[in-house]
Amino acid sequence: MLVRLTMICSGATPATRKGSFPLDEALEPRSLALATTMAVRRADRAWTSPALRARQTAEAMGLNPSIEPLLAEQDFGRWAGKSFEEVQALDPDGTAAWLGDTDAAPHGGESLADMAKRAASFVDGLIRTSGHTIAVAHASVVRAAIVHVLGAPLAACRRIDVEPLSLTDFRSDGHRWMLRSSGVPVAKLGNATGSQSDDAES
Questions:
Q1: Which CATH number covers residue 58?
Q2: Would residue 103 count as lying in a domain?
Q3: What is the pTM of this model?
Q4: I need a labelling partner for 22 at 20 to 30 A (CA). Which of 9, 45, 116, 199 fits?
Q5: Cβ neighbours of residue 115 closer than 8 Å, sequence gap 6 or more
Q6: How far is CA 21 from the centre of its chain?
């Protein structure tokens, strides 16, 4: 039984391009143009985060995805749209707590631990779902999925770089997930999300 999950990181927005905590805003023009070159074929199902930038990414790629709340970006509350430097200056104690404790949510939003539970629930729910699933999400969600599959400490999320419009590929035998590849750039997406027959021959 082939079980494959390809997670695609949504494109960049003006806020994320500046390194700010993400807002629910539209893709920057360059990312939208790049996404239109990423046509994906032969997926059995597609899901997307409710965020505008994720939906735009999926639509630009020619997908017709269903909305999946479990793939939503981490809620950064009152920090959304601000740079890390701004947040650190305004709330140094809260910033230190957030960096040191994955259960902390000093911004009034969602903790890293709570977001990671959502990501793990999504991944585990597909472990026996035959075929190829594509999920358009966010760097935070992709990182959480990676550490969940690897059984790594949640704090390791902060050491994983996930580029906009890159993909991470997982495979399952129906009992456990394996990380097959991560950080695959947009230029290789067409090959990396090919047909099931391609997988059998590789």
A1: 3.40.50.1240
A2: no
A3: 0.90
A4: 45
A5: 74, 75, 140, 141, 144
A6: 15
